[in-house]
Amino acid sequence: MNMNQVTLPVNDMIAAVNFYLSLGFTQIVDTPHYARFTCPLGEATFSLALETTDFSNGAVIYFETENLDDLVADLTNKGIVFEQLPTEQRYLWKEAVLRDPSDNKIKLYWAGENRINPPWKVEIRAPRNGSK
Long-range CB contacts (< 8 A, 24+ apart) of 85-89? Predict the structure, then answer.
């Protein structure tokens, strides 16, 4: 199984699309209520769905880049505001934090080998009782 995409709610499709285009994503679907993008590397996609009622999204979407510092500097020069500039985290990831125009929390990060193989990685085990 492979994850296909994540869909984020937005309250202003035009502002959201422009924001993600400025981050460097390629738009592949464009409708007034739905937009979809490919990431610059790999085959992952994500989408935006227009919400006409108030919403609160507690999810955080992560986009990984080895050139985190350069990307953040470039985006800052384009006027993108960060809540947190690239910072080494105790869990061995370097992260920058920003929000899209609909207040969805975005983390740009670099984890390298630690993304899949952190020092505290557990042994693969069978599903627990009750799990399928």
Answer: none
Band (pLDDT 50/70/90 cuts) for residue 124 is confident
Region 13-25: mean pLDDT is 97
At residue 128, the 3 state secondary structure works out as: coil
Secondary structure class of 20 (helix, strand, coil)? helix
pTM listed for this prediction: 0.88
Q: Which residues of 34-47 are buried (b: 16+ CB within 10 A; e: fewer)?
A: ebbbebeeeebbbb
Residue 37: is its pLDDT beyond 70? yes
Side-chain-side CA neighbours of 53 within 13 Å: the count stands at 0
